[in-house]
């Protein structure tokens, strides 16, 4: 005997005949199904027979021990299972909309991820969940760590936080490093570079407050005396602009260069050093029970990363 935990209220949106069909399938006989539906067995039989006439084939075989599906009935049952699962999802989403009241969710995100992920999140949330209000701040990975620790932020989106015990890493997306150069730079035309190839040229380096600093500087220690560092900055956007202006080579996560490549004023070249790869993580406090609003936003962020990377 097949059973489905879906409400007749939602099935009625599809077709009352299907409610009758599902009841016979669930309860195994016309009499038991009619009792559940609070109609007479003859009325239920008539509805099913009319439906069978409409589609031109029987759906059940009437046997002494109850009703058994024909091949056509089995096909209809499989179709109904899909329909009911879709209706259940609709019911759940509508229920979520009704339950989420006016609530503010605080997000802190690294500047490099803010320009891509956050507009998508805001558009989705404001369209589908008007009861959720967002506050979005940008900061370094260390500042995001501190904001989560102090519970000033509900969600942190940061690079290279690793797996801190107090935080739960909801999703982690790895990104390679790119060297950013002017369109007439000598390295243009190469399909990839090693960091050791870049040290012969002027460099634009991240300041220690950026997670990128930890990924690059250890690999450049052996070249320390030969480095020609033209500038350091804690602004990803400024480093890209200076590279595009020909000041030197900047280094940025692929996430950043994907977001910034709306003009053709710089060239990005993949860096082959495996050690330079970074991960963008989405974090919440491990022990804190998350509100439904936070869970919805986490689902939207994960949806964005799944679709784009």
UniProtKB/TrEMBL annotation:
InterPro entries: HTH-type_LysR_regulators, LysR_HTH_N, LysR_subst-bd, WH-like_DNA-bd_sf, WH_DNA-bd_sf. Keywords: DNA-binding, Transcription, Transcription regulation. It comes from the Bacteria. Residues 13-70 form the HTH lysR-type domain. The keyword RNA-binding does not apply. Pfam families: HTH_1 (PF00126), LysR_substrate (PF03466). The keyword Transcription regulation applies. CDD domains: PBP2_LTTR_substrate. Belongs to the LysR transcriptional regulatory family. This is LysR family transcriptional regulator. It comes from Commensalibacter oyaizuii. The lineage of its organism: Bacteria, Pseudomonadati, Pseudomonadota, Alphaproteobacteria, Acetobacterales.
């Amino acid at each position: 005997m097949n059973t489905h935990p879906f409400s007749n209220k939602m099935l009625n949106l599809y077709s009352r005949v299907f409610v009758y069909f599902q009841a016979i399938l669930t309860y195994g006989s016309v009499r038991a199904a009619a009792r559940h539906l609070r109609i007479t067995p003859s009325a239920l039989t008539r509805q099913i027979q009319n439906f069978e006439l409409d589609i031109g084939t029987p759906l059940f075989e009437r046997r002494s021990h109850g009703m058994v599906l024909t091949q056509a009935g089995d096909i209809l049952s499989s179709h109904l299972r899909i329909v009911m699962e879709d209706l259940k999802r609709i019911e759940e989403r509508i229920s979520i909309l009704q339950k989420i009241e006016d609530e503010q969710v605080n997000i802190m995100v690294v500047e490099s991820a803010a320009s891509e992920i956050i507009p998508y999140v805001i558009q989705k949330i404001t369209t589908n969940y008007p009861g959720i209000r967002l506050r979005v701040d940008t900061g370094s990975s260390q500042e995001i760590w501190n904001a989560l620790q102090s519970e000033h932020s509900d969600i942190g989106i940061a690079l290279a936080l690793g797996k801190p015990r107090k935080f739960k890493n909801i999703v982690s997306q790895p990104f390679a490093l790119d060297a950013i150069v002017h369109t007439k730079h000598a390295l243009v035309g190469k399909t990839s570079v090693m960091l050791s190839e870049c040290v012969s040229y002027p460099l634009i380096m991240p300041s220690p407050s950026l997670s990128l600093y930890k990924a690059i500087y250890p690999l450049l220690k052996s070249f320390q005396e030969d480095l020609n560092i033209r500038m350091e900055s804690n602004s990803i956007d400024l480093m890209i602009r200076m590279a595009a202006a020909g000041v030197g080579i900047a280094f940025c996560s692929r996430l950043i260069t994907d977001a910034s490549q709306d003009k053709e004023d710089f060239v990005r070249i993949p860096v082959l050093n495996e050690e330079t790869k970074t991960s963008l993580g989405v974090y919440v406090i491990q022990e804190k029970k998350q509100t439904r609003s936070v869970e919805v936003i986490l689902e939207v962020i994960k949806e964005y990363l799944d679709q784009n990377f």
